[in-house]
Amino acid sequence: MKVGDKIPDTLGVDQNGNPIKASDYKGRKVILYSYPKANTSGCTAEACSLQQHKAELEAAGYSIIGVSKDRIELQKKFADSYSLEFPLIADTDTTLLQQLGAWGEKVACGRRTIGILRTTYLVNEDGIIEKIFTPKEIKTKIHAEQILSYINQ
What we know:
The protein is α/β, with parallel strands linked by helices. The chain has one domain: Glutaredoxin. Helix content is 28%, strand content 29%. The chain has helices spanning 41-52, 54-59, 72-81, 95-100, 143-151, and strands at 10-13, 19-21, 29-34, 62-68, 88-90, 103-108, 111-116, 119-123, 129-133. The strands form three sheets. Strands 5-4-3-8-9 form a five-stranded mixed sheet. A two-stranded antiparallel sheet has the order 1-2. Strands 6-7 form a two-stranded antiparallel sheet. The two termini are 24 Å apart.
């Protein structure tokens, strides 16, 4: 997907087994971010950055939704371990990740693999993507600050 595209309505099921749809967020802005694997250092840093700045992001009108290929049980453990107060979608078949363009070839430890591309989509109140943070732009430890800097400019 690219800036100007509408995100799919069906996003998936979160860590609590709840179905999540874009239409549930109609009239609200969304930070939809993909991350490679729960409970890894980079993904934990990114999620904790977003949680730490959740009140500021919400004050700017944004709700947060994470998505990875992890099973519901692992997403739940991740959310509970770090007190994450936002949905984490368990996209085990990569349907949403592929639709978003957050699934593809990447280089990890010098090897080319196919997997999740760490990407963040800022979505407006109508479900339209307004900004995409690409894998090369995202700094996991300060990602929420990157987002806040962008939306406050």
